[in-house]
Write a structure and sequence with these properties.
The structure holds 2 protein chains of 2 kinds. Chain A is of the alpha+beta class. Chain A has 6 helices and 13 strands. In chain A, a hairpin with a 5-residue loop joins strand 4 and strand 5. Chain A starts with a helix and ends with a helix. About 4% of the residues of chain A have low confidence. Chain B is mainly β. Chain B has one domain: Beta Barrel (Porin), CATH 2.40.160. Chain B has an 18-stranded antiparallel barrel. In chain B, strands 11-15-14 form a 3-stranded mixed sheet, with no helix packed on it. The radius of gyration of chain B is 27 Å and the shape is globular. The chains are: A alpha+beta, B mainly beta. Chains A and B meet through strand 1, strand 2, strand 6, strand 11 and strand 12 of A and helix 2, strand 1, strand 16, strand 17 and strand 18 of B.
Chain lengths: 273, 453
């Protein structure tokens, strides 16, 4: 069971390289085992979070979006919905995702100016989520079996915590899907060994001189679930920081709701109850 | 170059072999400092939205004779103050919104040096300070039943060149192709009920699309008015309407079925009164009325990869058709309307939207302009960049062989969370025998600035 923030991290964790050298290297069983543990980490049957998404350009100018996020694990489908509360030009906007096991995801966007819910193409999910450095696919989650993993180092530490350092490349059978839905061509990630939380990731965008750096911090144990309250993604180009996004969670609770009606296009039209 | 500078320039080169990927990456893993402080307002029952918008539009060409504007000139200089408040009281939700709007152009002509042009009384009235109610309603849930009553915007269709299943879509048609998205759709009085997959809406739609004032750039009856005729919109025979919608969603596919018995929002001539002048009958009064429209239709969307495919199909009964001689009661006929469209979003941040729409009138009356098979097409490209700060959009629409088309390009720049800038250019394309011909000289550029506190 995976909540939004954890799935976000997992997707970033799974982003990978199609470069010939790396794809020729076989997956290590140990890395697959680590990833399976990460995927199986219990993160609640449902969650409700309030957060700020802060967008920062290279001149340090900030734009701030207040969000309310809900997640629910249903039979074979992870559902999430995000409502934007501010600023005024995006208030009322919502994004709904149904992440089906073994099938294409479904996603819809509601724009209050249109007064209409519109289905979003899967390809859109490689695009920026509401102008942030997180993509729609980062928010949606992805199939663990689409990737191959290799353990690079198990003796590193990050902030004094032992971590596994892994590399991920798309599985040859799913390379097209990975490229289409994430835009990533390879990744290196760092997973804390004590709680299986992804705390760092570096992702290379296909056909681009850009790469993205993910970091999770302010880890707090809430209801027995390790939760990073600050998620950050920095986009760089030719080694220079181009844009950054920070998702700062001010409130989160697990297993506090189980209302499937919240994860419908009708709920998007009705707005935040 | 001094010797003091040289070592500093060489340092990165000397250190480069020593840097590992992870060490270099560490620079971007550190916390990015932000000025914003996390806010938590769980349980907050009241929320607000406000903005102030200034819009200016310039008509690029001399219009055909008959319109108030007789030269390339400003067409409006409009200030809009928009406000919306939402309040939650227990299970009840209240929303109130509206806009205070004023066009300063007549004032400017009267008080400043701008020579301008003459406005009709109707134009002056329409441009004075006006309060326009936007979505204002009360809603509540009882178990599986959800009710919302009040003034509300209902958008049921996505076709851009033809109304297929958008049976509740009242619009502002004063400046076709020039309105911003926020101003385009208008709410209607309605009571909406949702129960499981079914929507039922009872309308009180006695207001047509918002029409241009007499003498405005897109007044369709300006020739008739200048000839001395009075153009009146009379009440609908039955303002009440009912629409039903059933929706179902499967993985990858959305389906909706629609049945409606409503008033169409586009008024059509139902009566022409004449008087004898010089022994000839001359129209003295034209009466328009919202026609009754019965619709049975379906909408289907399917996504696969980078594509979203969509179609809308509907039977419309008793649709008024423009006759060769439009100053007459318009004959009516049943129509089959269809739209096929696709969105493609597989290349960077570009979205392409294409649409083809068909109107089939099998029992087409004689002497109407529209052919039995009437096609319209639209192609739109939208590109977002600079982290969604800049949106560029271009659209070409061909509205049919008897109508003409338009070209539209626009750019929107989000300067910050508080300032948005927008510039749009619209060109109208029509031949002598097409419906848009009187408006082909109304090409315009529109500038908007919006401040959001």
């Amino acid at each position: 069971m995976i909540i939004l923030t954890t799935r976000l991290m997992l997707v970033l964790l799974l982003a990978a390289l199609m470069a010939t050298v790396l794809s020729a290297q076989a997956e290590t069983p140990e890395a697959r085992d680590i990833m399976t543990q990460v995927d199986n980490r219990y993160t609640g049957d449902s969650s409700h979070a309030e957060a700020q998404l802060i967008l920062i350009d290279r001149r340090e100018r900030e734009r701030v979006r207040d969000l309310v996020m809900y997640e629910l694990e249903a039979e074979g489908t992870s559902k999430s919905i995000v409502f934007f509360r501010s600023p005024a030009d995006v208030a009322g906007t919502s994004y709904l995702s149904h992440d089906h096991d073994g099938a294409d995801n479904d996603a819809w966007l509601y724009l209050p100016a249109l007064g209409q819910v519109r289905r979003v193409a899967a390809g859109d999910r490689a695009g920026a989520f509401m102008g942030s450095d997180f993509s729609y696919s980062d928010m949606d989650g992805m199939e663990i079996d689409w990737w191959q993993y290799r353990l690079l180092d198990d003796s590193q530490t990050v902030n004094d915590h032992p971590v596994w350092h892994l590399e991920a490349v798309p599985h040859p059978d799913h390379a097209d899907q990975v490229l289409e839905e994430t835009g990533y061509e390879r990744a290196r990630i760092w997973v804390r060994q004590d709680n299986l939380v992804l705390i760092r990731g570096q992702y290379w965008l296909a056909d681009s001189d850009r790469s993205k750096y993910f970091s999770a911090s302010e880890l707090t144990e809430i209801d027995g679930i390790w939760t990073p309250l600050r998620l950050q993604m920095v986009t760089t180009r030719n080694g220079e920081r181009e844009h950054s996004s920070v998702l700062s969670i001010s409130h989160i609770e697990y297993n506090s709701h189980s209302d499937a009606d919240l994860f419908t296009t009708r709920a998007m039209e009705r707005g935040l109850e | 170059m001094s010797l003091l500078t040289l070592p500093r320039l060489l340092t990165p080169l000397l250190l480069a072999p020593l840097l590992s990927v992870s060490v270099q990456a560490d620079d971007f893993f550190g916390d990015v400092s932000t000025r914003s402080t996390p806010q938590s307002t769980p349980g907050s029952s009241i929320s607000y939205r406000f903005w102030i918008q200034q819009q200016a539009a310039f008509g690029l060409a001399d219009p055909d004779p008959g319109f108030s504007r007789d030269q390339a000139d400003w067409t409006r200089f409009e200030t809009e103050l928009f406000g919306q408040a939402n309040h939650r009281i227990g299970a009840w939700r209240l929303q109130a919104s509206g806009a205070l709007i004023h066009d300063w152009l007549p004032d400017t002509r009267d008080q400043l040096d701008w020579p301008g042009y003459d406005f009709t009384d109707d134009q002056e009235d329409a441009r004075r300070w006006q309060w326009r109610l936007r979505d204002t309603h009360v809603s509540r849930t009882w178990g599986d039943l959800w009710l919302r009553g009040g003034y509300q915007t209902l958008a049921w269709g996505e076709a851009e060149t033809l109304n297929v299943i958008d049976v509740a879509g009242r619009r502002d048609e004063r400046w076709p192709g020039q309105a911003s998205l926020d101003d385009l759709r208008l709410p209607v009085p309605a009571l909406q009920a949702q129960w499981h997959s079914l929507d039922a809406v009872v309308f009180w739609n006695d207001q047509p699309h918002r029409q241009p004032a007499a003498g405005d750039d897109f007044d369709p009856w300006t020739g008739l008015r200048n000839a001395g005729a009075d153009v009146k919109t009379i009440d609908a025979d039955n303002p009440a309407g009912l629409a039903l919608r059933w929706q179902h969603r499967w993985p990858g596919t959305d389906l909706q079925l629609i049945a409606a018995d409503v008033n169409a929002f586009q008024p059509a001539p139902v009566e022409v009164r004449t008087e004898m002048i010089g022994g000839q009958p001359v129209p003295s009064e034209l009466r328009l009325q919202m026609p009754r429209n019965r619709v049975l239709g379906a909408g289907l969307q399917h996504s696969r990869g980078n594509w979203v495919w969509r179609t809308e199909q509907a039977l419309h009964t008793d649709v008024p058709l423009v006759p060769e001689q439009p100053v007459a009661a318009w004959p009516q006929a049943d129509q089959w309307r269809a739209m096929w469209g696709a969105d493609f979003s597989g290349w960077r941040n570009l979205t392409l939207t294409g649409e083809a729409a068909l109107t089939w009138t099998p029992d087409r009356p004689a002497d109407v302009r529209q052919s039995e098979w009437h096609w319209a097409q639209s192609l739109r490209a939208s590109h977002q960049s600079f982290s969604d700060r800049l949106t560029l959009e271009g659209q070409a629409a061909h509205l049919g062989a008897d109508q003409g088309g338009l070209l539209r390009v626009g750019a929107q720049w989000d300067l910050s969370d508080h300032w948005n800038l927008e510039a749009t250019g619209v060109a109208y394309v029509a031949d002598d025998d097409q419906l848009l011909d009187p408006f082909r000289q109304q090409d315009a550029v529109i500038f908007r600035v919006r401040w959001l506190p």
